């Protein structure tokens, strides 16, 4: 279809490209000069959403910087370059940041135990893309019989916040797809 696809081939347990480069807490990297808010699931996840340990030990500052230089920076530089090229070519660019989500909210989420919509378009409450784009996606999905709940429980993350500049012709929309649309969550 002529759509460029960028795939993060590194698990978010190694480095989450949908987190800010400074979203690191002291438990994940004790040497960090200015830790972000305490978070077990920041740039370098310490625990899974179920609470299981991910890191066997905290990262050194050198290890953290290496991951940022090898994974985070190239990923976002590639996105920025692609978006700039599309904007120059077409006058605007659209970034669809596609994720999957569990069908039920998990403990520690804003919606524990709640059934989630089939599709959650997240536009940071109208700030990362033109409202018409969010509306188009929602109407498209509803027209195919899917339930849609914009910005609930996910509004968008670092990718949409960092790259979405609708006033400059760069629109970013995070789309969360409910996993039970395409897989058995108990057996994967």
Report on this model:
With 188 residues, this protein is an alpha+beta fold. The protein has 3 helices and 3 strands, in the order αββααβ. A 3-stranded mixed sheet has the order 1-3-2.
- Structural class label: alpha+beta
What shape does the CA trace take? globular
C-alpha Rg (nearest Å) = 17 Å
Q: Helicity range of the residues?
A: 25-40%
Mean pLDDT across residues: 95
Number of helices: 3
Strand content: 5-15%
Q: Please count the beta strands (DSSP E, at least 2 residues each).
A: 3
Strand order of the largest sheet: 1-3-2
Element-by-element helix/strand order: HEEHHE
Major sheet description: 3 strands, mixed
What oligomeric arrangement do these chains adopt? single chain
| Uncertain stretches of 5 or more adjacent residues | none
State the gist of this model.
Helix content is 26%, strand content 12%.
Describe the protein's topology.
Elements: H1 61-90, E1 93-101, E2 119-122, H2 131-142, H3 158-163, E3 170-178
Parallel strand pairs: 1-3
Antiparallel strand pairs: 2-3
Give structural attributes.
188 residues; alpha+beta; 3-stranded mixed beta sheet; 12% strand
């Amino acid at each position: 279809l002529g759509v460029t696809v960028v795939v993060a081939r590194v698990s978010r347990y190694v480095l989450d490209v949908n987190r800010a480069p400074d979203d690191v807490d002291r438990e994940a990297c004790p040497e960090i000069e200015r830790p972000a808010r305490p978070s077990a699931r920041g740039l370098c996840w310490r625990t899974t959403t179920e609470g299981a340990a991910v890191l066997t030990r905290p990262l050194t500052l050198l290890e953290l910087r290496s991951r940022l230089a090898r994974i985070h920076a190239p990923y976002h530089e590639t996105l920025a370059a692609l978006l700039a090229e599309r904007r120059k070519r077409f006058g605007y660019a659209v970034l669809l940041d596609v994720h999957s989500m569990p069908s039920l909210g998990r403990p520690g989420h804003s919606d524990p135990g709640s059934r989630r919509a089939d599709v959650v378009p997240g536009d940071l409450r109208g700030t990362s893309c033109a409202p018409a784009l969010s509306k188009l996606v929602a109407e498209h999905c509803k027209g195919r019989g899917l339930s849609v709940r914009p910005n609930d429980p996910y509004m968008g993350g670092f990718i949409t916040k960092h790259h979405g500049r609708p006033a400059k012709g760069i629109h970013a929309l995070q789309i969360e797809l409910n996993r039970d649309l395409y897989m058995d969550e108990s057996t994967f």
